[in-house]
Design a protein that fits this description.
This protein has one helix and 21 strands. The strands form five sheets. Strands 3, 4, 5, 6, 11, 16, 17, 18, 19 and 21 form a ten-stranded antiparallel β-sheet that branches. A five-stranded antiparallel β-sheet has the order 7-10-20-13-14, with no helix packed on it. It has 261 residues and is mostly beta strands. The N and C termini lie close together (10 Å).
């Protein structure tokens, strides 16, 4: 892990201004072949696999969860077949993201369990009743991404599937301590059997409307530009609150990111 820190000088002090992570590269030793006939065939098949870019590297060890990291092919050597009828090559990839895990939350519908004007999750986390209506639904999010001070929020992909009927003008907000800190909205109709996919991942940011027959179209032009748009999950606890979604199926993927594993 290498961080590039920037400071401003103030007399005898250095005032921290920002920190950036230097993306690394990774080299592998790869051995191809079983005999002289198959060696270059294996090499060619592997090169065809590398043709599919970008790639995702999966990493796990005993006692740890699986972590993913986005990467791209950089180089692959090619040598002559040796005495053991194999070739020993070096593969180098560039990392383009931090390590991360994709995590989904639990969906909650409107329920005033204690009849006290609050909507509870297991009688601990809540949002005030006057913040939502019976037509709204929400997720409780706990984002424990670890950024070493480089960032304070993580990308989310949201999917709204119109399974029971058309959905018109869907919108959603991120709340922290019962205050709206981010929001997004789309002036469009999701036809029954269709869906809306919105991702705030900087590397694959998109707003896509999918028709019932699977045809995709760009929904950027339908985005409400009075909102903050492309919401992200702040570090810590927050609420993802949906409006105007009827009985649609809702899902999201939170990209929990870590700098060091």
């Amino acid at each position: 892990l290498v961080l590039s820190n920037t400071y401003a000088n103030d007399n005898i002090y250095k005032i921290f201004t920002k920190s950036e992570m230097s993306q690394a590269e990774l080299a592998f030793k790869v051995i191809f072949g079983e005999d002289r006939v198959s060696t270059y065939s294996f090499y060619y098949q592997f090169s065809q696999f590398l043709n599919h870019q970008p790639m995702v590297l999966s990493y796990t060890t005993d006692g740890t969860d699986e972590y993913l990291r986005d990467c791209r092919f950089k180089s692959l050597t090619k040598s002559e077949i040796g005495e053991q009828e194999t070739i020993h090559e070096e593969l180098v990839i560039d990392f383009t993201s931090t390590w991360y895990q994709l995590e989904s939350g639990n969906l909650f519908q409107y329920t005033d369990l204690a009849n006290d004007g609050k909507v509870y999750d297991y009688q601990y986390d809540y949002i005030y009743e006057d913040k939502i209506s019976v037509n709204q639904r929400f997720f409780l999010i706990n984002n424990n991404s670890s950024y070493f001070g480089i960032a304070g929020k993580s990308p989310i992909e949201i999917v709204i599937e119109a399974v029971s009927g058309a959905v018109t003008d869907p919108s959603w907000s991120i709340l922290v301590d019962n205050k709206v800190v981010q929001n997004d909205a789309y002036n469009l109709t999701i036809q029954k059997g269709g869906k809306l996919i919105v991702s705030s991942n900087p590397q694959s940011r998109r707003a896509t409307l999918v028709s019932p027959d699977g045809i995709e179209s760009n929904a950027y032009q339908n985005q409400d530009m009075t909102k903050t748009n492309f919401v992200t999950a702040p570090i810590g606890e927050s609420i993802l609150l949906f409006n105007n979604i009827g009985q649609a199926n809702l899902s999201y993927k939170l990209r929990k990111e870590v700098i060091l594993i």
